[in-house]
UniProtKB/TrEMBL annotation:
SMART domains according to UniProt: AAA
Protein name: ABC transporter ATP-binding protein
Spans through the membrane: 46-64, 84-110, 164-183, 189-208, 272-295, 315-336
Boundaries of every ABC transmembrane type-1 domain copy: 45-331
GO molecular function: ABC-type oligopeptide transporter activity; ATP binding; ATP hydrolysis activity
Domain of life: Bacteria
Alphabetical list of InterPro entries matching this protein: AAA+_ATPase, ABC1_TM_dom, ABC1_TM_sf, ABC_transporter-like_ATP-bd, P-loop_NTPase, Type_1_exporter
Cellular localization per UniProt: Cell membrane
Length: 606
């Protein structure tokens, strides 16, 4: 990407293949739903802020009265002379004190309401990210989701904490002050008529360009984060293929684009404030001209004109506040659309959950695959019209060359991806009808890539079954062969594992994953090369752990070693997305087909 000049408007069209960005209607709907439980609190805060703004008009009005008192001897608050001045001073002090108290209470009530709404949105966006389908995250890149759950949530929280209550106070102050000017003399509203087009033009020009610029900047930041994350995660591959320059160039392009958009946004801000200063000059001049005209005709007094000028001068601060807030609020609005986009992301909504209550199985259920086909976006078919059956309580091994579709078949059976055509039945129930919670308790998938969560080992295991006691945890660890090394840990189950804790090897991490399956106790398990990361010594330990896990369940084992498959009740041989052979190990060897050739080659190589 060429580094373009900052003097012209950059392209703010945004990026494709990103997570959903919420529309204005979706944002309003979500915010209305969040505000509903806090209506009374929010309404009370608005009333108090209006009262505080009204009390702010008392001092300018009394100042105008003092001008008439000095100039024409007009009574003020029923008094004249020094007494009137003292009464005016006392009234001003009382009004300012009451205004500060009432506005402060209203500010606190509004800030508390907004904080509750932001906290709820933060929980929803994290929940939406966790529940998002894997293929969706793979398509858009993890950086976009990370950016929304970190940068955008932080920007939204910061803007709300610093700006929203000030926006309400400033907006109400402007409204109340304009009403006060109308009460002095309706002709002073000519200033408002004069300034509205100026402010509207300046703000409209800014709003027409700034939100898209902020949104595009957020997208570029997400792309930069994605590039950094993927490069760090695949650092060995990057170095092995000497990709440092290309990866650095890509990240640099997104960083430069972010800077370029930041400069363009600053130009827009400068234009905005220039227009505001022009409006202030025109407004004050208009008040003085109208006041001179009215005084000349004895329509109003000099004190009234003074009051009107002070009212308009009082508008400088709230209007300036509103203008200052346009920038962070435009940035926050872009972040809000991205945050709400995760909440309303269409693909985060499970298509299941509409077929009645969750299933209840008296024993291991039958697993049926009917005419199953699947392809990744923009790729050829990975699975092509696969039909098969796993008998209740049996173990089926899936074997085949790399790229044959074994792992994809396992992911579809576990519900990690939606099928293109066909269906998967578990105990006669279409798996597509299961909600994510029902599916998680019905089918467990264990892959070769396991994750140990940061925290104590007890908490890590209890993610699968929060209510289990230590006896249940130790029993699960014993069944997968992990009890010896767990009891040898410095603090046993209280030992901190994962990031910044006890480092667990691939065998130990896989044993933890298998122990979680036992704690969930699902009727169906899918094991996708769950022992492939173990070495020669650890392979035998994990092999026995796997057979403990599948005992008494309907199981599908995607095997990378044929001696694993030989122990299964049935074997499926996959080739190019099709099931080419199926049957028990002895029958397939005796048949002399493709599986027999694989077995012979495997046996010679051992």
């Amino acid at each position: 990407m060429s580094r373009q000049s900052h003097r012209r408007q950059p392209d703010v069209s945004g990026a494709t293949d990103a997570l959903h960005v919420a529309t204005g209607e979706q944002v309003r709907r979500v915010l209305a739903d969040e505000l509903r439980p806090h209506r009374v609190r929010f309404s009370t805060s608005l009333i108090l802020l209006i009262l505080g703004s009204a009390l702010g008009l008392v001092a300018p009005r009394l100042m105008g009265g003092l001008v008439d008192l000095v100039r024409d001897g007009r009574p003020l608050l029923g008094h004249t002379g020094t007494t009137a001045v003292w009464w005016a001073a006392a009234a001003m002090a009382a009004a300012v004190g009451a205004m500060a108290l009432i506005t402060g209470v209203g500010y606190v009530l509004m800030a508390g309401t907004v904080e509750r709404i932001i906290a709820s949105l933060r929980e929803q966006v994290v929940s939406g990210g966790i529940g998002m389908p894997a293929e969706r995250i793979e398509k858009v890149g993890v950086g976009d989701l990370v950016s929304r759950t970190t940068d955008d949530v932080a920007e939204l929280t910061r803007a709300v904490n610093q700006s929203l209550a000030s926006l309400a106070i400033g907006g109400l102050a402007v409204l109340v002050t304009v009403v006060g000017m109308a009460f002095l003399d309706w002709r002073f509203l000519a200033v408002v008529v004069l300034l509205v087009p100026v402010y509207a033009t300046v703000v409209h020009r800014y709003r027409a360009q700034a939100p898209d610029a902020y949104l595009c900047q957020r997208t570029e930041m997400a792309q930069r984060a994605s590039g950094i994350l993927t490069s760090l995660r695949g650092l060995r591959t990057v170095r092995a293929f000497n990709l440092q320059s290309s990866r650095r160039a890509g990240i640099g392009d997104h960083s430069w684009r972010t800077v370029e958009l930041g400069v363009w946004i600053r130009i827009l801000i400068n234009r905005l404030f220039g227009g505001v200063n022009l409006a202030e000059y025109l407004g004050m001049a208009g008040v003085l001209v109208i006041g001179w005209f009215l005084v000349e005709r004895d329509t109003v007094t000099v004190g009234v004109v003074t009051t009107a000028a002070l009212y308009f001068l009082r508008l400088f601060q709230p209007i300036g506040m509103l203008v200052v807030l346009i920038d962070p609020l435009a940035s926050a609005a872009a972040s809000l659309r991205r945050v709400v986009g995760v909440v309303v992301e269409p693909e985060t909504r499970s298509p299941g959950g509409g077929c009645g209550p969750g299933p209840r199985y008296a024993g291991p259920p039958e697993l049926c695959i009917e005419h199953l086909s699947f392809s990744y976006p923009g790729a050829r078919k990975v699975l092509d019209d696969v039909t098969a059956r796993v008998a209740p309580g049996s173990v089926t091994a899936v074997v085949g060359a790399s790229g044959a579709g074994k792992s994809t078949l396992g992911a579809l059976m576990a519900g990690c991806r939606p099928v293109d055509t066909g269906r998967i039945l578990i105990g006669g129930i279409d798996a597509a009808c299961l909600s994510p919670e029902q599916r998680a308790r019905t089918v467990c998938l264990v892959t070769q890539e396991t994750h140990v969560f940061a925290g104590t080992l007890r908490d890590d295991l209890r993610l699968a079954c929060p209510g289990v006691d230590d006896a249940g945890l130790l029993d699960a660890l014993h069944r997968v062969g992990a009890l010896d090394w767990v009891t040898a840990l410095p603090d046993g189950l209280d030992t901190v594992v994962g990031e910044r804790g006890q480092v667990l090897g691939p065998v130990e991490a896989q044993q933890i994953a298998l122990a979680r399956v036992l704690l969930v106790d699902p009727p169906v398990v899918v094991l996708d090369e769950a022992t492939s990361e173990a070495g020669a010594g650890g392979g035998a330990v994990l092999e026995e752990a796997v057979w403990k896990v599948v005992e008494g369940r309907t199981a599908v084992v995607i095997a990378h070693r044929l001696d694993q498959a030989a122990r299964a009740d049935e074997i499926w041989l996959m080739d190019s997305g099709r099931m080419v052979e199926r049957g028990a190990h002895p029958d397939l060897v005796e048949k002399g087909g493709a599986y027999a050739e694989l077995w012979e080659a495997w046996s010679r190589g051992r």
